[in-house]
Design goal:
The structure is a single chain. By secondary structure, this protein is an alpha+beta fold. It is about 40% helix and about 30% strand. It has a four-stranded antiparallel beta sheet with strand order 1-2-3-4, covered by helices on one side. Strands 5-6-7 form a three-stranded antiparallel beta sheet, covered by helices on one side. α1 runs antiparallel to α2.
Length: about 160
C-alpha cells in the first residue's frame, strides 16, 4: 500500500471499503445448494422428456456464479481518507493498485450529501472544493454514506483556540 506524502499529523485516517455480506465459504454453500436444487429439478424434467429444460437449469447456476464473481471483483476496491491540519487527502485503490490521489485544502473542502427529504432517499456523498465535486463512498449504502459524511464533517472542523 502506498503511503500518503503529507508530513502533517493525521487528524483522521480511515479506509472505506464495500461491505461483503457473503463470505467465500457461504458462497460455496449457496452455490452448492442452488446447483443441487437445479440438478434435482433438471433430473425430473429429463425423466418427463423435457430434456431442454435441464440445460436451462444448468444455465441458472452458471449465471449465478458469474454474478457473484462480478460482485466479488467489484468489492476489491477501497478508498483511503486522511484529514491533516492542512488538507484532506483521498486515495482510490482497486485490487491494492493505486488509481488516483486527490488532495483538498482543509479550509476549502466541504462535505455534501444529496438527500431527498420527501422520499427519504440518500444520494451521492461529495467532496466540494473550488467549484469542483468528487464523489466518495459510491459503493456504500445510504446509512454508511451518512455516517461517513458526519465523521468527515467533524474531522474537518478546526478546533477554536
Amino acid at each position: 500500500m502506498n503511503k500518503l506524502v503529507s508530513m502533517d499529523k493525521p487528524v483522521l485516517s480511515m479506509i472505506v471499503s464495500p461491505h461483503r455480506s457473503l463470505s467465500p465459504a457461504g458462497f460455496a454453500v449457496l452455490l452448492g445448494g442452488v446447483a443441487a436444487l437445479n440438478l434435482a429439478g433438471g433430473a425430473v424434467f429429463l425423466y418427463l422428456g423435457a430434456w431442454p429444460v435441464a440445460g436451462f437449469m444448468g444455465l441458472d447456476v452458471a449465471l449465478i456464479w458469474l454474478a457473484f464473481r462480478w460482485s466479488y471483483h467489484r468489492a476489491n476496491r477501497y478508498e483511503q481518507l486522511v484529514v491533516t491540519d492542512t488538507e484532506l487527502q483521498l486515495q482510490r485503490f482497486v485490487e491494492n493498485r493505486l488509481l488516483e490521489t486527490l488532495s483538498f485544502p482543509r479550509g476549502f473542502v466541504h462535505v455534501d450529501i444529496e438527500h431527498d427529504d420527501d422520499r427519504q432517499l440518500t444520494g451521492r456523498l461529495l467532496l466540494r472544493s473550488k467549484g469542483k465535486a468528487c464523489e466518495i463512498g459510491s459503493f456504500l449504502g445510504p446509512q454508511d454514506r451518512r455516517a461517513l459524511a458526519g465523521t468527515l464533517q467533524k474531522a474537518l472542523v478546526r478546533p477554536k483556540i
